[in-house]
Amino acid sequence: MQTPEAQGGGLRVVYVTMVYGRMNRYIESWAARCRLLGVTNLVMATLDAEAYALCTEHHGQQCVRGGISALNKYTLLLIALQMGIDVMWLDFDVFLVRHPGAALAAAVSPGYDLLMGYDFESDCLCNGFFYIRSRPSTVNWLFQLLRWLYDHPFEHDQRAIGAFLNYTEKVAATPEEMPAVPRWHVFDVDSTFINFGSWLGGYEELVLVHFVDGSAFSLYGRSDSDPSIPESKLKGMRAFAEGADQEESPMDAFYRPGVAALPAEELWEVQPHLKLLLDGKRKPKPLQRQACGILPSVETASTGYGWLAEHGAKAVPPEMQ
C-alpha cells in the first residue's frame, strides 16, 4: 500500500466513498478500477451487509461497516481530518478515468483548503466529489456542518454545504451557527472533474465522470412513495428491486466487464461507445450560468449567483482577498 503522500501527488490524502443497495453491483469493478490506477488509499463505507461482504472480497481490509444515513458521508471525513489526514470524497456514481492525485495537487496549489465540485451550466456547488485539507479551521467547519445537519434532518446536505461556504444556497441557520469559511474554490468542471450532463470535451484532461445518479433517497429516510422523487429514478429503482431488465444507464456502460482494466490512453479506442456517450454531452461554455436555487426562475431574497459566476473560475475567493 502506498503512502497517502504518494497517492495524492505529494498531499497526505485518503480517498473515501460510500455504497449500499443497488449500487453494490458496481463494487467489484470499482475496486478493480482503483487497483489499475493505483488508487490504493481508498476507504469504502459500506452501508449494508451485502456491500460489506463484496467490499471485503474485492477491496480487502479498507472497508468500513455503517448504517444507512447521509451523515455517514461526513462522519468518516471528520475522523480523518481530526487525525491530520486530508480527504477526497467520491460519490459511488463516479468513474475514475485517471488517478486524481496530480490534478488534485495542482488544484490546491494556490493555497486552498477545500475544493468543491461545480455545475457546468449553473452557479451551484456539487458535493458528489470534494476535497478537504486537514486544518483546525476545516475540522471546525465540518464539525459545525455535521452538527447542524444532525439537528436539521430534512435539509439536503448539498444545500447546507453551499450555505456553510456562504455561497448561492441559503438554509435556516443563524449567524451564530455558521463557522468561519475555509479558503475554498471549485474543481475544473469544464474537462477535468466533470458531471455527466455537460462538459467541454477535453479528453486529455479528464480525471473523473460523475453520473449524478441522484437515487440515494433512503439516505434521507425517504421511501419510494415520496412524491418528490422523480419518476425516472423510481422506474430504475423498482426494476432493480423486482429483478427486471433495465435499460442500460451511462454508469452501467462504463462499468461493463473489461472496461475497468483499460488505462485512460486505451479507454476511448477500445470502448468507442463510451466516447460516443461523452461526445453527446459536449457543449460550448455558457456565456452566463443559470442561477442556483430550487426554483431559479422565481425571484427570492437570494439572487442565486455568487463570486464564481460574477468573476469566473480564476477568481480569488473573498476569504483569500
Distance between the termini: 40 Å
Task: Write out the CATH superfamily name.
Answer: Spore Coat Polysaccharide Biosynthesis Protein SpsA, Chain A
Instruction: Report the total helices.
Output: 12
Helix content: 25-40%
Order of helices and strands: HEHEHEHEEHEEHHEEEHHHHH
Coarse structural class: alpha/beta
Mean pLDDT: 87
CATH class: Alpha Beta
What is the overall silhouette? Answer: globular
The CATH architecture name reads Alpha-Beta Complex
What is the CATH third-level topology name? Spore Coat Polysaccharide Biosynthesis Protein SpsA, Chain A
Beta-strand portion reads 5-15%
Say how many strands there are. 10
Q: What about the largest sheet? A: 7 strands, mixed
Pick out the low-confidence regions: 217-222, 225-230, 236-242
Strand order of the largest sheet: 3-2-1-4-7-6-8
- Cα gyration radius (Å): 19 Å
The total number of structural domains is: 1
Give short descriptive properties of this protein.
321 residues, single chain, 33% helix, Spore Coat Polysaccharide Biosynthesis Protein SpsA, Chain A, 7-stranded mixed β-sheet, 14% strand, alpha/beta, globular
